[in-house]
Amino acid sequence: MSDRIVGAEVIVTSPTRNFVTLKVTTDDGVVGYGDATLNGRELAVASYLRDHVAPLLLGRDARRVEDTWQYLYRGAYWRRGPVTMAAIGAVDVALWDIKGKTLGQPVYQLLGGPVRDRVLGYTHATGWELPELLDSVREKTEQGFQAVRAQMGVPGLDTVYGVDREARAYEPAGRGAAPVEEVWDTDAYLRSAPDVLSGLRAEVGPELRLLHDAHHRLTPQQAARLGRALEPADLFWLEDVTPAENQEALRLVRRHTTVPLAVGEVFNTVWDCQQLITEQLIDFVRTCVSHAGGISHVRRIFQLAELYQVRGAPHGPSDVSPVALGASLHVGLSTPNFAIQEYMGYDPLVHEVFPHAWSYADGHLTPGDAPGIGVGLDEALAARFPYEGAYLPVARRRDGSMTDW
Ligand code: GCO
Ligand code: MG
């Protein structure tokens, strides 16, 4: 048994939406999977892996998980960035998967063993106005969810990212060669959001954890106002109030509101959230294994966060594949300051393409006890759904200029 890597293959499949999966094989025939999906830029990561990483993996010792991470991160010279870190993350998760399978242990055992029995999950509810939103939230609580992210429409707009007028679910990427363009109006949002969310709180009672995502749309001053106005809604968190590459911006928000803040789904290294964590400008850090360098790096981020009482709460919408979700649950079960896992859910076909040991019940998720990560890939089925271009929307202000959405 030598654990030499003899295969590194990239599989792109689109069972309702695009996923990029790395499959690493050892000379003993052990197979590990990692998720390399980057919504709307999938093929860039596929090429990075196929053209630049796979040849470097062949012949390497699959047991050297940390050394391989260092080799790919430092070796590239061009550090950080979503494409690089998604590729490194996929390798890292695939190697943890192989290690678990080789040792006959679920990965959470290799990360120190469980510190909790199950991982709290939150899902999405959407409705254009309060009555539909309330119906959507109730549907989710009937499925057992104890934490729900609530997104609503904005009066005067036709569309809002994250909300669907008809359906009670929302897929962030639309098929096609170019993104759909939407119109966004921050003033109208700020006028309506506090009443809708406070109205929702009044209807659902005090216990349900309610979350809301502002999706990077606000200035620091607008974010401070919104946070203060939302205090009666008693949110579990308010997410991505500003585009947080300007980390200092959160200082102003913090000065004006005690609403818990969650940031980090677009970050890919510890450096991107260092100031947010060490200055305690956030309460939850949202980095996930597929976008932030895998299990090894997300654990490092959460360990830094633990020193500052910031908790881990990874991104987990439908563009984070079942492989990354499984990997995240191994981190969740074994990491003391892990708070909650986003679980948007998947189309039934996605569950078939990626058979998995993880499961959802009663508002919680568990990774299962299969050796490794416990998520497979039905390659024959995956091959029936080739890549189709799909893009997240973009948004313009009423004067036609581009804005964050
Ligand atoms: C969330 C999100 C997502 C992102 C999407 C982009 O789940 O909190 O903000 O829905 O918009 O993952 O690809
Ligand atoms: Mg978000």
From TrEMBL:
The portions of this protein that span the membrane are none
Look up the signal peptide feature and give its range.
none
List the InterPro entries hit by this protein, alphabetically. Answer: D-mannonate_dehydratase-like (IPR034589), DgoD-like (IPR034593), Enolase-like_C_sf (IPR036849), Enolase-like_N (IPR029017), Enolase_C-like (IPR029065), Mandel_Rmase/mucon_lact_enz_CS (IPR018110), Mandelate_racemase_C (IPR013342), Mandelate_racemase_N_dom (IPR013341)
Entry's Gene Ontology molecular function annotations: magnesium ion binding; mannonate dehydratase activity
* Segments forming domain Mandelate racemase/muconate lactonizing enzyme C-terminal: 130-260
Q: Please name the PROSITE patterns in this protein's record.
A: MR_MLE_1
Q: Which domain of life is it from?
A: Bacteria
What's one Pfam family the UniProt record gives for this protein? MR_MLE_N
Q: What is this protein called?
A: Bifunctional D-altronate/D-mannonate dehydratase
What organism is the protein native to? Marinitenerispora sediminis
